[in-house]
């Protein structure tokens, strides 16, 4: 630190005592009320925008954070319980969704196929394999917002009791808008790719209603077999 | 004292981020308290409280509540334990049915299905600890056969009864059974 830089030059009298040659820290502070106010307002507005929009985006995605993922399937065993995280609570109460309680069963949702591509209602999918043991299960096709859709035969689901199985207990379901032989899960007739598609597998009276029990269970694969 | 522009900018950005985080958390936490139509409110539009009301079939465009299974038929009953204990009684002749009890916030309080109920008939009594001790002084004779669920607080809530329809020919039978289901005082 040099002596000269700290002191105002003697030649310049007291009139220019706030000259810029003083180091910044000890330079006398002149307040700019308007500038300070603008800065505070800017911080407030930006913070509100950022906070509200990020909260909106997370809630609008409608995917609770504490998901258990098995292949393309996701389950939220804690949804609708007192242990649910605040995001799931917000998502579920906002949608007025009544989840399957643990004594009833477990719902698993697929938004992507086994290769990680978004599901598309105009494509044909093959859902094959096994489900965890359950007394009854249903597989439903809904659109990207979770609403039921119009299909050719009117039904939008298949039930475990009515499907054809291979001798080893595995099954194969064709999900398509046009009729298929064997097990057919009808998809939306005349849908466009932007409508979105989700498969919802509901296992009723299943022992796997807790998250820990879901590790290592076999779930059906979802393969895209064709697209227009 | 005055600060360098770069320092001021850093402080400004940090302040914005911290404030944004606080606002984000407040918004997320305040959503459940500010929803206009919770499941508890929506159910009231399908009939009076303390009575099982059959929900319309789960079909496109007329879903009573989001995310219901189209393979099932549903009935709901809203109750307030402050008005007295609630007895659920139903006999549904299908291979699967289940009932979930939820509080007004939509959190599951208790749930069971026809296998865990241990009997073909559902008979379940929901009451507060205080109401149970009053009831024990003069117990009804079938108290032993009931599934008794005690809650520490007199909660308001609803029950959702789900019944599997194996085939459309069974639909009328399930409808009748759900309509005949009781949800009321002992």
TrEMBL record, chain A:
The keyword Transmembrane helix applies. It comes from the Bacteria. It holds the Pfam family DUF1214. Residues 105-206 form the DUF1214 domain. Keywords: Membrane, Transmembrane, Transmembrane helix. The chain crosses the membrane at residues 37-59. This is DUF1214 domain-containing protein. It comes from Roseibium marinum.
TrEMBL record, chain B:
It comes from the Bacteria. InterPro entries: UCP010244_IM. This is Putative membrane protein. It comes from Roseibium marinum.
């Amino acid at each position: 630190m040099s002596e000269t830089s700290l002191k105002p030059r003697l030649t310049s009298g007291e009139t220019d005592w706030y000259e810029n040659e003083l180091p910044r820290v000890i330079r006398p502070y002149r307040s700019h009320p308007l500038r300070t106010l603008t800065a505070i307002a800017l911080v407030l507005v930006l913070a509100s925008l950022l906070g509200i929009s990020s909260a909106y985006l997370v809630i609008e995605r409608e995917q609770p954070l504490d998901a258990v993922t098995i292949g393309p399937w996701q389950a939220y065993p804690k949804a609708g319980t007192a242990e649910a995280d605040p995001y799931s609570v917000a998502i579920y109460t906002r949608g007025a969704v009544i989840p399957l309680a643990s004594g009833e069963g477990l719902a698993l949702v697929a938004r992507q196929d086994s290769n990680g591509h978004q599901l598309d209602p105009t494509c044909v999918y093959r859902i094959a394999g096994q489900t965890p043991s359950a007394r009854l299960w249903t597989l439903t096709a809904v659109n990207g917002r979770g609403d039921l859709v119009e299909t050719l035969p009117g039904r939008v689901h298949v039930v475990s009791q009515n499907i054809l199985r291979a001798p080893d207990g595995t099954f194969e379901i064709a999900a398509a808008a046009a009729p298929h032989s064997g097990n057919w899960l009808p998809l939306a007739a005349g849908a466009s790719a932007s409508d979105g598609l989700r498969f919802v597998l509901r296992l009723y009276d299943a022992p796997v209603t807790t998250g820990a029990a879901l590790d290592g269970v076999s779930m059906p694969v979802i393969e895209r077999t064709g697209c227009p | 004292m005055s600060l360098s522009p770069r320092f001021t900018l850093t402080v400004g950005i940090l302040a914005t981020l911290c404030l944004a985080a606080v606002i984000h958390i407040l918004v997320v936490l305040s959503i459940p308290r500010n929803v206009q139509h919770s499941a508890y409110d929506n159910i009231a539009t399908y009939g009076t409280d303390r009575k099982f009301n059959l929900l319309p079939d789960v079909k496109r465009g007329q879903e009573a509540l989001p995310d219901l299974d189209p393979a099932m038929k549903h009935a709901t009953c809203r109750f307030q334990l402050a008005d007295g204990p609630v007895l659920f009684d139903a006999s549904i002749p299908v291979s699967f049915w289940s009932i979930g009890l939820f509080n007004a916030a939509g959190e599951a309080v208790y749930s069971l299905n026809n296998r865990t109920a241990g009997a073909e008939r559902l008979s379940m009594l929901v009451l507060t600890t205080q109401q149970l001790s009053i009831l024990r002084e003069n117990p009804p004779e079938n108290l032993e056969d009931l599934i008794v669920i005690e809650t520490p607080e007199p909660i308001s809530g609803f029950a959702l009864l789900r019944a599997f329809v194996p085939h459309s020919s069974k639909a009328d039978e399930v409808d009748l059974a759900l309509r005949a289901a009781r949800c009321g005082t002992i």
